[in-house]
Task: structure prediction
Amino acid sequence: MSNQVPQGFLLAGVHCRIKRDPRKLDLTLVVCDRPATGVGVYTQNLVYAAPVALDRSRTPSNQIRAVVICSGVANACTGERGLEDARQMAHLAATQCGAADDQALVLSTGVIGAFLPMDRIAEGIAAAAKQLGSSQAHLEAAARGMLTTDTVTKTAGRSVNLGGRNIQITGIAKGAAMMGPNMATMLALIMTDAPLDPATAQTALRAAADLSFNCMSVDGHVSTNDTVLLVANGAAGGALLAGADLASFRAALDEVAIELAKAIAGDGEGSTHLVTIEISGCADRAAALAIAKTVANSPLVKTAIHGADPNWGRIVSAAGYANVPFNPRGVTLHLNGCLLYRDGAPVQFDAAAVSKSISDNRDTLVQLAFSDGTAGVRFWTADLTAEYVRLNADYHT
Result:
């Protein structure tokens, strides 16, 4: 099974009464049995949460021992009290594994502008510390403890043999809306027993995020709390990864990150379709990414897909306002493998058949080809439904 807990990590997820429903876990604790490399990529929103400020100040590091996650309250826009609460969360987690305060990192998600119920969180961390383990049940509970409006847990893992060492990479994530990561609303923790120095880990994580979380959007809203952490404890033994072994590790890390990002897009609030947008033939990757994001975030494109409407005009016109120069006569569009538009002009196609291919399948593939170069990108989003509007209209009130 690829979704194993890497060596040296213990996890737990508990309900500590942040959420009213006792069936919903709302606190996750992850502990490492030795000082580990910890790196992160964070939201680029100028309004960022206290946990983001704390984790930015503590990463990169080679001394991380614990990560604590709470869901239900974001601890964003909470001023100095929010910063002190984040520091206190870290202190409580560090104490449970005999570590110093700066060896713990914090993640929070939920309602913006509310203060954390620190008495309940303190009880939750203590309870979680008594339930730590490395089984599949512990991994699942940890993944549940970070969810908000998600309908499913999000885990991904890969095992790779590098120079006789079996290396495990396993990630857990949350996210369903307020989702337009720009990391350089979502949370993810990726754990590995590979030996990595902080600089190498930071480079690998940033590259993986660019291929995955930065190529995913539900609604284009960049959260105050977006964070992806990579913690590498070296428990697999041996020298620091380098050369071909490092390249193989990075490829597996990319796969884990992409699987988590697709799971987030596929669980977009109220969504009925996971939409993959493949862009090719652009002058450079930045151009391809800009077009993909614009198409992905178009409400008209998203509602057309929800309605199983092969409305090529919405897709092509969205590309046209992406603020990217291209030759309009060199644009070709396929939807679920069916040619709808070629070299800047529509073609005849069976609209009923294409509509059925959308309505009968959760996955929808949009392929836009340009004639301006060789660069491309793959991007993931969800359709836009009335249920999304209802969920977000009712979220706070």
User: Anything to note?
Assistant: DSSP finds eleven helices and 14 strands in the chain.
